[in-house]
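Please fill in the sequence for the structure shown.

STRUCTURE ENCODING:
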């Protein structure tokens, strides 16, 4: 890997030999998640991220029915292959669908393809081949089993053994899984020698439930954790959330909103912001390799990179800990877990 920008430290992905910046590029946004992003804006966003040192890029066939992979590949092909780390996923094959083509659910793209679950060994190989075609690249670095929540047995029998074989063959350098729930991820971490898992929405400033199972299991097994959803789908993404704030893509419950606002007030009292707290806090855990954040514009890239370097005084973390706003087991920048808290299950 070429060196990252000085203000973007890198961390290892398990035992793969790969290192990634602590801030990753989440590819769902340029796959037109919720709303369309013009082609030129999507390309400019990817270029801005790479230029800023955000050279860890995560995508999936699921994102925009392949649009994310196609758009990312168009830009990545113009860069030296060793200058970025690319992750995609398996578990859904994309099959052509005859017209008429309506909108594809939460992705603002025509439904010219449909998703077919496939966690077999052959399906994993086919998925990677088709992803490489869309990307226009010869290889990806990281391959993850995607959303196997209701397909654990199939993934256990087919996908994971095949990913391990592909790693042995040198087709990919790192393998793992990406899901929202920690329980199945924890089982996979314990059963297979995975390099990395990606979990969304279970380790942020408002929910540290991954401390119960996934994070200690990953630490024990030498598996790195990548985090998605660190801004809680909205409530932690602004300086002070309003009444219309969302958490996990739904209206934020009153207790969540109250806690987020208290965190925001503490941040403001010390001259910083809630989003800076949200990003820097989760990166303090030793098994966390990176936070992957979805972006839709060059301005969002610049804002997120700026959050990494924002000055958050130690008094902020002391106040967060003193007011019981996070689980006492949670490492915070400049503050270890509370004595005896790290081993509590």
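FILLED IN BY: designer on duty
SEQUENCE:
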């Amino acid at each position: 890997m070429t060196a990252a920008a000085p203000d973007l430290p890198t961390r290892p992905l398990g035992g793969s030999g790969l290192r990634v910046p602590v801030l990753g590029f989440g590819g769902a946004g340029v796959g037109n998640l919720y709303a369309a992003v013009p082609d030129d804006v999507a390309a400019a966003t990817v270029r801005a991220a790479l230029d800023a040192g955000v050279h860890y890029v995560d995508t999936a066939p699921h994102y925009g029915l392949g649009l994310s992979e196609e758009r990312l590949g168009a830009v990545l092909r113009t860069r030296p292959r060793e200058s970025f780390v690319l992750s995609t996923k398996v578990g859904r094959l994309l099959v052509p669908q005859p017209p008429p083509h309506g909108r594809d659910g939460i992705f603002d793209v025509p439904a010219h393809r449909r998703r077919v679950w496939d966690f077999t060994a052959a399906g994993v190989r086919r998925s990677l081949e088709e992803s490489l075609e869309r990307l226009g690249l010869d290889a990806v670095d990281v391959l993850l089993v995607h959303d196997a929540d209701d397909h654990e047995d199939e993934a256990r029998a087919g996908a994971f053994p095949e990913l391990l074989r592909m790693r042995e063959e040198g087709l990919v350098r790192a393998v793992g899984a990406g899901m929202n729930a920690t329980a199945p991820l924890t089982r996979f971490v314990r059963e297979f020698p995975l390099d990395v898992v990606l979990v969304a929405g279970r380790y942020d400033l408002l929910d540290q439930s991954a401390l119960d199972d996934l994070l200690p299991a990953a630490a024990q097994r030498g598996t790195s954790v990548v985090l998605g959803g660190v801004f809680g789908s909205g409530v932690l993404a602004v300086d002070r959330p309003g009444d219309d704030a969302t958490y996990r893509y739904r209206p934020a419950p009153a207790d969540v909103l109250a806690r987020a606002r208290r965190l925001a007030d503490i941040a403001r009292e010390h001259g910083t912001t809630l989003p800076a707290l949200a990003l820097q806090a989760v990166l303090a855990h030793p098994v966390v390799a990176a936070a992957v954040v979805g972006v839709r514009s060059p301005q969002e890239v610049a804002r997120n990179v700026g959050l990494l370097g924002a000055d958050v005084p130690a008094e902020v973390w002391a106040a967060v800990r003193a007011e019981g706003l996070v689980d006492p087991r949670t490492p915070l920048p400049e503050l270890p877990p509370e004595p005896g808290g790290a081993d509590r299950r």
